[in-house]
Amino acid sequence: MNYNIPFNKPYLTGKETEYIESAVKSGKISGNGFFTKKCQTFFEERYGFNKCLLTTSCTDALEMAAILIDTQPGDEIIMPSYTFVSTANAFVLRGAKIVFADSLANNPNIDADSIEELITSKTKAIVPVHYAGVGCDMDKIMTLANKYNLFVIEDAAQAIDNYYTFKNGETKPLGSIGHLSAFSFHETKNIISGEGGMLVINDKQFENRSEIIWEKGTNRSAFFRGETDKYGWVDHGSSFLPSEIIAAFLWAQLENLDDIQKRRKFLWSSYFESLNVFAKTVGIGIPEIPAHMNNAHMFYLVCENLEQRSGIIEYLKSKNILSVFHYLSLHSSPFYSEKHDGRILPESDRYTDTLMRLPLYYELSDSDIGKISQFIKESLK
Ligand SMILES: *Cc1c(COP(=O)(O)O)cnc(C)c1O
After folding, report:
1. pTM over cut 0.90
2. How far is the CA of 158 from the centre of ligand 1 (A)?
3. Which of 5, 10, 77, 157 could cysteine-pair with 58, CB 3.0–4.6 Å?
């Protein structure tokens, strides 16, 4: 049998075009309409998020967060080096200096114990990235934020429908813990709209201003609610809201969130069962994620070294199966290495060289996973 397994395949629930058509027919296709409100309310009700605003991407949501905390030139923002460029760009665009932290040895999340020594009088925020959707150590991060009066902005791009349990036993959805949080609906994420994202405003001091920044610096949202009799330019801002066409697509996905998550979790477990024992015998690390902390965003392997990873990726490619490596440490990127303070971040560099992601999408079958796992084993013979 001839395989052809892409790394990702966007899943359509079947209602996307119907809802888009209904948005188009309604005559209201710009933003902040029926479907936008439906999606925002869904998130607020299901996860108890204080206030949600759909954006055109997670990148945009992070930029809104950088504006909301009033990022100024010279401010320092602490984040992991092993992350996507958007996490850093949002703050770099406003003149901030990024202070990169290392990842943990047992997963790519920020090493929360390394944060305190990076804090200075210029530090303004910590941006934890929930890698593979798995929660960072929010106990330690929120404690530091309170102690030093810092903002916490969760990069929850991959963390939809996942939870974090604090040491005191309290469980909260990821994205509801920091002052602000950013989600992504890019087609590679669990829930998609092509491009798309959402800003979650948990800290009430940002509620009003977030709407203004979202709507080009105007009080248009308040005007349409009848709270003011005219609308005008009241602050700086930009156009961060998606059209109703995007929101209509997203709504079709949200209606099927439970089904999508169930399928992804099944596939994730299937990988785990086929690879867990074998991986250990060849020095490959496999994510050990308790079920209640796993939203099945990604199944990854941490190889022993770069050669081993390249060998597996090449072998799978020869079988028409696409697996991919992930981030390149931002502290050693062409754009930022000159600006970085020279600290060595060994875990971040290790994930850069050794982490690989396996195909994981709704339409993948159990037998596909069996095949992929078998080829991985073969590649190491
Ligand atoms: C996908 C992703 C982003 C960017 O999301 P977009 O919606 O594509 O802008 C940012 N941060 C992380 C950690 C991501 O995985």
Report:
1. yes
2. 7
3. 157
